[in-house]
Amino acid sequence: MPLSKKLTAEFIGTLWLVLGGCGAAVLAAGFPTTGIGFAGVSLAFGLTVLTGAYALGHISGGHFNPAVSFGLWAGKRFPTNELLPYIVAQVLGAIAAAGILYVIASGKTGLTGDQLMAGGFAANGYGANSDGSPGGYTALAAFVCEVVMTFFFLIVILGSTHRLAPKGFAPIAIGLCLTLIHLISIPVTNTSVNPARSTGPALILALEGVSWGMSQLWLFWVAPILGALLAGFFYLWLSGDDEPAAVVKEEVVVEEVVE
Known about the structure:
mainly alpha; 11 helices; 70% helix
């Protein structure tokens, strides 16, 4: 598959993830008194990954997340030379999604810019005074949460896509895992586990003159990538025999010829 098509798929997939997940948070979470709440937002993020992976996974692998790309690289499932292009495409997709969401959300009659930004625009954060941490959790709690949640997200991804895993079910496992992660960690950080997803809303906040999103964005790059790298290296050690599919097929053919 040409790299240009892979990058387009990553752009569209990340756009869909941020538009669907953050869109649910911004537009529907508390609308107006009977919104979908944390559970609905959690499900929305899971559904975007599930549907995006089935639609685009066969083109690009369905990463839609720089941390996932790093984790797959650490697990020797992804080539080094495609890492940076994938991350650029993912970040651009997230920014495009945040821009689309801003246009939609700002179209509500009588809504001012300050009112739109008052809820944090689904940005990730930490601290008692941050709209990005509904529970007012500390930076340490946020960092640990993001590392651990991303670690297990990558464990599920690496395990469900292993050559010995049941075929065709990986997007379901991954989507449900992301839903569970959001159910756990929305109160802590609004749930990132995805640096691109964090960048889009933070940039919109900055353009509206709200600075906390960008000032706290470092954590939502460092912690998810760290968690993903740890998971990639750990799963590579744990599985031990996760060789590329082409190599495995060649061995099978050789065995058949010998017999």
